[in-house]
Design a protein that fits this description.
Blueprint lengths: L1 H55 L7 H10 L6 H18 L3 H10 L3 H12 L3 H26 L9 H4 L6 H18 L6 H11 L2 H12 L3 H28 L10 H47 L4 E3 L2 H4 E2 L4 E7 L5 H10 L9 E6 L4 H48 L3 H11 L3 E12 L4 E11 L5 H19 L4 E5 L2
Parallel strand pairs: 3-4, 6-7
Antiparallel strand pairs: 1-3, 2-3, 5-6
């Protein structure tokens, strides 16, 4: 019995050792799998990082010398370039005058406006004071020449009509900033490639829209509308500033070689000047962006406030944008219909703080209390009545014309119904009446001065071998058949001589 117990204990120990060894082996396999997974993940992470690094890398293959040469060549505004600018401004002005986006786009494609702006950003990036000076001079020439050309064009009274394309270039917003930054970045990257992407250059010229604001500024001067002049120049300044800033950023990122000056003090002075200009551009860009952001936010808050009033069932004349006066920090609403008391107006004023309009003045003009509003409503009513009368007259004229058309169609149907297709009819006659050698058809009008009748007459030449009696029989038979065939009466048969 003791031996059996020992054997059992021995077997149990052996079994425990086996299980322990298996557990250790299993743990080792798990550890190995963990290591493999870590290696695979690390490899995947590295390959992913490498993929995106290659995908987004713009440094590889950059032709710095060719890029610098290309930018410097595009700076000059003399000779042929100046004339191209003048003609492109004229084309753009015509496009704005006739409100044709296609013509404006065509003008932007051929304009050389981008050169000096890129030159400013690029020269600041490489501390090249000579190129910077040349870029600034040519930029000034470009602006003056463009505004002067558009001013002369719009000075002609025939071309001084305001159009949607002109008005659209008088008020910038935050999106113009984003377009200018993205366009400037895309442009410099495209130029710096081994093979410049000129379709990208053309696309950026269209997207950033440098030319239309200059044309609109000329229009503002020609028509003495200085709000248009200022707004258009502001839009142009935003586009130019952020394009130059984007060119500066890419120049620095791609590490274009800096211009080296032999005199150390001069090099230091130029470097300080370049960074001062770059800082000024950056600060001005941030200021413009902030101002536009504040204005856009104000319009959004004011629009939400006006919509909340409309949700109460209040009828307001005009569009929301026309009621918001950002510069005066006030909202002016033309209300008509129900009369609203001071309690309603006070409640609206108190709710303005909820929309972020705490310091905004609310002006409510009601049709019952303000003569100006009544006059506007009366004018709208008169315009509606006049328009309605014009529409009524036009509808009557159209009805008369439609009635006349119906009568003419009716007469035509009658005509076509009575029309005799002699060619087809002659084939049938020739088959059924072989003795008819010649045929003529006519419609005669007959009157006894009391009534008028239309008679269908068939002129027949018979075979000469037929006797008169036989001809008469054939003619009667022919008349009955033809009346049945043509579904008409008053058919006469006569012999053709």
């Amino acid at each position: 019995m003791e031996e059996k117990k020992e054997d059992i204990e021995k077997k149990e120990k052996e079994q425990e050792q086996k299980e322990k060894i298996q557990d250790e082996i299993q743990d080792e396999k798990i550890e190995e799998k963990k290591e493999d997974i870590k290696k695979e993940f690390k490899s995947f992470s590295q390959s992913t990082k490498s993929f995106f690094s290659e995908l987004l890398n713009i440094k590889a293959g950059t032709d710095k010398e060719a890029t610098a040469e290309s930018i410097k060549k595009g700076i000059s505004m003399k000779g042929q370039t100046a004339w191209i600018l003048v003609f492109s401004i004229i084309i753009a002005s015509i496009g704005l005058n006739i409100s044709s986006p296609a013509v404006v786009i065509g003008a932007m494609l051929i304009s050389p406006l981008m050169g000096p702006i890129l030159g400013i950003g690029f020269s600041v990036g490489i501390n090249d004071v000579d190129t910077l000076r040349s870029s600034l001079i040519n930029f000034a020439v470009m602006v003056v020449l463009s505004i002067l050309t558009s001013f002369l064009f719009f000075s002609i009274p025939l071309f001084q009509q305001e159009t949607p394309e002109l008005i659209a270039r008088t008020k910038p917003d935050v999106r113009d900033v984003l377009i200018a930054i993205s366009g400037g970045l895309a442009l410099v990257i495209a130029i710096s490639r081994p093979r410049p992407q000129f379709n990208t250059v053309a696309g950026v010229a269209i997207a950033t829209a440098l030319m239309p604001p200059l044309c609109t500024a000329g229009f503002g001067l020609a028509t003495s509308n200085f709000n248009y002049f200022g707004g258009a120049l502001f839009l142009f300044s935003i586009n130019s500033t952020f394009i130059a800033l984007a060119a500066f950023a890419i120049t620095k990122y791609l590490r274009f070689p800096m211009v080296v000056y032999l005199i150390k003090t001069k090099r230091k002075r130029i470097s300080q000047l370049a960074y001062t200009v770059a800082t000024a551009i950056l600060l001005f860009s941030i200021y413009l962006f902030y101002q536009l952001y504040i204005e856009e936010r104000y319009f959004g808050q004011a629009n939400n406030f006006i919509e909340s009033i409309k949700d109460e069932g209040v009828h307001i004349i005009g569009k929301n944008k026309e009621s918001i006066h950002y510069d005066e920090n006030e909202i002016e609403l033309y209300v008509f219909g129900k009369k609203y008391g001071n309690k309603d107006i006070d409640r609206w004023e108190n709710s303005m703080s909820e929309f972020g309009l705490k310091n905004t003045k609310l002006i409510i003009l009601q049709s019952q209390t303000h003569s100006g509003v009544r006059e506007d409503i009366d004018e709208i009513k008169n315009l509606y009545i006049n328009s309605h009368e014009l529409l009524s007259v036009k509808e009557e004229t159209i009805s008369e014309k439609e009635e006349r058309i119906r009568e003419l169609e009716k007469d035509l149907r009658k005509y076509y119904k009575k029309e005799v297709h002699v060619g087809k009819l002659a084939e049938e006659i020739h088959i059924n009446y072989e003795d008819v050698k010649e045929l003529a058809f006519a419609r005669e009008i007959k009157t006894n001065f009391k009534r008028i009748d239309t008679i269908s007459v068939f002129y027949l030449r018979w075979n000469s071998k037929l006797k008169d009696k036989e001809i008469k029989i054939q003619e009667k038979k022919f008349q009955k058949w033809m009346e049945k065939r043509m579904k008409i009466e008053n058919i006469e048969i006569r012999q053709l001589k």
